């Protein structure tokens, strides 16, 4: 059994009121990863956390820990609205207390409150990285099996439909846009680490290579 707080591990949800990561007031994630299913958020979060010597956290894992069941079971037994409620709470809690790499569930950005929190985090200098991927590259990664309840039925069409609806949101909230098509997860993590700049690159003075600066909405 690995140490849950070791660098690169994915931490789960904590009991309300606990502070096992010893977060100081004002603490925020080093980076938040957003993107559709199969974009590599969970995978890259672990690799990037290793790279930065911090802890990775995944709101999907947090929701499952809180509910005591898998996301698929939450969808079937409690419905998507209940899942989204648990997800909204998990995201808010993680944004408030996690100081490592934070991977969000693919649809977390659809919630208006979450959008506000992410916009404020980005405006305050936080990094929201949108892991972009095309259907062609997402398909073999996701495998389109039953563990992703929203992709049941016609997985390819469902994925593309989700992505079409969400792309504007991902792009609006992102402060960093990383295309992952044909890019191995480790290289995706490396690109993000490079974009985070000197604070994530001890001993260097490299200018952050932000590929897609924040776009302010009117
Ligand atoms: N850049 C990449 N290139 C090739 N395969 C990748 C890449 N990123 C992730 N994968 C693979 O794709 C699969 C899905 O990745 P992962 O679970 O990290 O995606 P996700 O964005 O977290 O999806 P979800 O939104 O469903 O949680 C994994 O098998 C992973 O190894
Ligand atoms: O894209 C989505 O809406 C989802 C993605 C997964 O990360 C899970 O959060 C869940 O399966 C829903
Ligand atoms: Mg994931």
TrEMBL record:
Which residues lie within the region annotated Disordered? Answer: 1-36, 195-218
Any idea which UniProt keywords this protein has? Amino-acid biosynthesis, Aromatic amino acid biosynthesis, ATP-binding, Cytoplasm, Kinase, Magnesium, Metal-binding, Nucleotide-binding, Transferase
Q: How is the cofactor bound?
A: Binds 1 Mg(2+) ion per subunit.
Specify which residues bind Mg(2+) according to the UniProt entry for this protein.
42
Which of this chain's residues are annotated to bind ATP? 38-43, 148
GO:BP terms for this protein? amino acid biosynthetic process; aromatic amino acid family biosynthetic process; chorismate biosynthetic process
The superkingdom listed in its UniProt entry is Bacteria
- Identify the GO cellular component terms for this protein: cytosol
Role this protein plays: Catalyzes the specific phosphorylation of the 3-hydroxyl group of shikimic acid using ATP as a cosubstrate.
Q: What is this protein called?
A: Shikimate kinase
Q: Which organism is it from?
A: Actinotalea ferrariae CF5-4
Ranked from the top, the taxonomy reads: Bacteria, Bacillati, Actinomycetota, Actinomycetes, Micrococcales
């Amino acid at each position: 059994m690995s140490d849950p707080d070791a660098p690169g591990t994915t931490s789960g949800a904590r009991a309300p009121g606990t502070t096992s990561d010893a977060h100081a007031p004002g603490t925020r994630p080093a980076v938040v990863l957003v993107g559709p299913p199969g974009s590599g958020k969970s995978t890259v979060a672990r690799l990037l956390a290793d790279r930065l010597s911090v802890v990775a956290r995944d709101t999907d894992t947090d929701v499952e820990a809180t509910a005591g069941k898998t996301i698929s079971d939450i969808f079937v037994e409690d419905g998507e609205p209940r899942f989204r409620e648990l997800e909204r709470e998990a995201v808010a809690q993680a944004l408030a207390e996690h100081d490592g790499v934070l991977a969000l569930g693919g649809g977390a950005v659809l919630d208006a409150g979450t959008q506000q929190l992410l916009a404020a985090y980005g405006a305050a200098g936080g990094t929201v990285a949108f892991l972009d991927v095309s259907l062609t590259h997402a398909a073999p990664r996701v495998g389109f099996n039953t563990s992703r309840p929203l992709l049941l039925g016609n997985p390819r069409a469902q994925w593309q439909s989700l992505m079409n609806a969400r792309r504007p949101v991902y792009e609006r909230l992102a402060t960093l846009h990383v295309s992952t098509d044909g890019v191995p997860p480790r290289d995706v993590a490396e690109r993000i680490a490079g974009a985070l700049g000197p604070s994530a690159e001890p001993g260097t003075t490299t200018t952050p290579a932000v590929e897609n600066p924040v776009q302010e909405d009117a």
